[in-house]
Amino acid sequence: MNKFDEKFTELLRDKNLITENQYKEITAYRNLGVFSLNAELKLFLYLSVLLFTSGIGILIYENIDTIGHIAILSILLIVIVVCFYYCFKNSKGFQKSETVFEHPVLEYLVLAANILTCIFIGYLQFQYKPFGEHYGLATLVPTIVSFFCAYYFDNKSVLTIAITGLAAYIGLSVTPQDIFNDSNNLYASQNLYASQNLSYSAVMLGVLLILWTIYSRRISLKTHFGLIFLTFALHIISIASISNLTSYDTLNWMLFAIVLIGSTFYFYKASYENKAMSLYVFMIVYGYIGGNIILFRIFENIDFSDIWELFVFLLPAYFIGSIVLFIKLIKKFNKEIRA
Asked: What is the predicted pLDDT for the residue at 25?
C-alpha cells in the first residue's frame, strides 16, 4: 500500500468514518498487492476497435477497384446491422441516469458500430452523392446517429464523436461556400470575413454546449456527460478567442478579449463545481496565453525603446514566476477539491 492511500485510510479512521476493524481489513487487503487489469483490458479493447475500423478503411482504399462499391457498402451495412442488433438486444434501454453494460465488450461494440456508420455514410456520399451537393448533411446525419447512440447506450466515446461531428458540420456550413465562390481570390477580404464567421460560430457552439450542460443538470439527464460538453466548450471558445486576438480589426479583437475573459471566469467556477482538474489546468493555460496577448495589444503603440533592456532583464523572471504560480495554483486547487 502506497503512502498516499495509507494516509487517507488513516484519515478516514481518525474521522470515525470507518471502524478500527474496517481499517485493518482495508490495510490487509491492500498489502496483498492485488491490482486490477480493468483499465488495461479496456485500453486493448479500444485499440482493437481503432485497428479494426482503420483496417476496414485501408482495405476499402486498396481494393476498391477489385471488390466494387456495392459489395463494400453491403459488407459495411451488414456488419453495422449485426453490431447494432447485438447491442440493442443486450442493452438496458434508455435511462436518464448513468447506465453500464453488463459486459464491457458491448460498450466498444457500440463504438465500432458508430465509427463504421460514419464510414458508411461518408463513403456513400463520396461515391453516389445521395445528399447531392449538400455535403454538410453527410456530416449531420452520422452526428445525429452518434448523439442517439451516446445517450441511448450511455457511451462517452461515441459522445465525443458526436460533438466533433457537430463542430465539423458548423465549419462546413460556414466556410466552403465562400471559398468556392471566391476561389480566384482566396486571400481576399471575403475569406477573412468567412474566418471571422467561423470564429463566431465556434463561440456560439461553445455557449450552446454550456447551456445544454446546464439544462441537462436541471432535468437530471446524463449529468455525467457534463464534463465532456464543458471540455469541448472550453477548447472551442478559448481557441476561437485567442486566434482572433491578433486581428487587425480593433473592435474584433476587443470583442473576443471580452469573450475570453468571460469564458475564463466561467470555467474557473465550473472547474470547482465539477472538481475537474482538466478544466482548471486548460482554463489557466488559455487564460495565460490570452492575457499575455491582450497586454501586448494594449501596449503595442507605446514606445518602450528607452527601457527595453529592463524588459529583457525581467523576462526570464516573469516566465519563472509564471511557472511557480501555475504550480501553486494547481496544488491549491487539488487541496481544495479533496477537502
From this structure: 77
Low-confidence ranges of the chain (pLDDT < 50): 1, 4, 174-194
Residues 52 and 21 in one domain: no
Using one digit for the tens of pLDDT, what is the confidence trace for 269-292?
A: 999 999 899 999 999 999 999 999
Q: Residue 229: which of 248, 216, 210, 245 has the closest Cα? A: 210
- What range does the domain containing 6 cover? 1-35
Residue 306 to residue 303: CA distance in whole angstroms: 8
Q: Which residue has the cell 464543458?
A: 230
Mention every residue, 6+ apart, whose C-beta is less than 8 A from residue 272.
Answer: 280, 333, 336, 337
Quote the DSSP letter at residue 208.
H
Q: What is the tally of structural domains in the chain?
A: 2
CB distance 279 to 270 below 8 Å:
yes
Query: Which of 233, 329, 224 lies closest to 277 in space, CA to CA?
Result: 329
| pLDDT in the model for residue 246 | 83
- Using alpha carbons, select from 173, 275, 288, 166 the residue that is nearest to residue 238: 288
pLDDT at position 205 is 93
Contact 209, 219 (CB under 8 A): no
Give 130's contacts (C-beta < 8 A, 6+ positions apart). 124
Looking at residue 221, its pLDDT comes to 92
Regarding whether 127 and 21 lie in a shared domain, the answer is: no
* Residue 120: closest CA among 169, 191, 72: 72
Residue type, 252: N
